[in-house]
Specification:
Layout (H helix, E strand, L loop, with lengths): L1 H13 L2 H18 L7 H16 L24 H17 L3 E5 L3 H7 L4 E6 L10 E5 L12 E7 L18 H12 E13 L3 E3 L3 E3 L2 H7 L3 E9 L5 E2 L13 E9 L2
Parallel strand pairs: 1-2, 1-4, 2-3, 4-5
Antiparallel strand pairs: 5-10, 6-7, 8-9, 8-10
């Protein structure tokens, strides 16, 4: 009976976009305060203590002072963040195939940046410097709105899931309603003629989700970089499916997809 009522409630909420929007808004507003409290984890403690009891009964030794409950890992499948998973593979393959001797990345996920050092020299730029010691790695502090490079000086450049945050204050950056557009123009400025830019960001119905991110249509991004030519476009849809080398103009109605743009600067 309880499950039936919950299912009916979910159906009603989904059928009323405004109600759904209000509920999601309240959840997002309260999440920073209550994210450490997860009432749904309480039943998992019962399973945890049952497993611990079985372990001790079988002769295992584990002090109560050393227990370390991991309550969210008993899943039927291995979960991924489809945006970050597919964009890293997409960009890595393209950079590998390009045989570039030096690649510059601006603000992308650090695991991806680290893997790039296995195939080329990497310079990483971020307002929050990544201070690590790794062969073929150089890190610099810098803003995507004022990159520390001359005009047309970078032949291979990537910026994955970054520009949508610029100007929203999330990472201690200055508030700027045109942050994403300005970031695109700066990437275009430093890219060398004939150079490759690998860019990814949320795509779909355009909106600002302050202070998390923006969502753009693919066409908006093309308008932000008039000096670049789109060579290939790939996308992750709302269901987490990866579509490689597809037309860019068929994804405007996504709720929260991930568009991956391979640009080349005009000679």
């Amino acid at each position: 009976m309880k499950d039936t009522l919950i299912k009916k409630a979910k159906v009603r909420i989904k059928s009323h976009p405004k109600v759904r929007g209000v509920i999601l808004c309240v959840i997002r507003l309260l999440a920073p305060v209550f994210h450490v409290i997860n009432v749904f984890a309480i039943p998992r403690y019962i399973i945890f203590f049952l497993d611990w009891s079985r372990f001790l009964y079988c002769g295992g030794k584990a002090s109560i002072l050393d227990i370390y409950p991991c309550l969210n890992d008993k899943t039927a499948t291995t979960g991924i963040d489809s945006h970050y998973f597919y964009q890293a593979i997409w960009a890595f393959k393209k950079i590998l195939d390009s045989n570039t001797k030096h690649h510059v990345d601006v603000g992308s996920e650090v695991g991806y940046v680290g893997l790039l050092t296995s195939i080329t020299k990497v310079t990483f730029i971020d307002i929050r410097p990544l201070e690590i010691k790794l062969d073929r790695y150089t890190g610099k502090k810098g803003s995507i709105l004022e990159l520390p490079f001359d005009d047309g000086s970078i032949a291979s450049l990537s910026c994955l899931h970054v520009i949508e945050h610029v100007g929203l204050g999330r990472y201690s950056d200055f508030i700027d309603p045109d942050g994403s557009k300005k970031a695109c123009r700066e990437l275009q400025r430093v890219l060398a003629p004939g150079g490759n830019l690998y860019l990814s960001l949320p795509v779909g119905k355009p909106r600002v989700c302050f202070n998390a991110h923006r969502v753009h249509t693919p066409r908006q991004i093309l308008e932000y970089v008039p000096g670049l030519k789109l060579r290939r476009f790939s996308v992750v849809d709302d269901e987490g499916n990866f579509h490689e080398d597809v037309p860019y103009n068929s994804w405007d109605n996504l709720e929260y997809g991930c568009g991956m743009f391979h640009f080349v600067k005009n000679l």
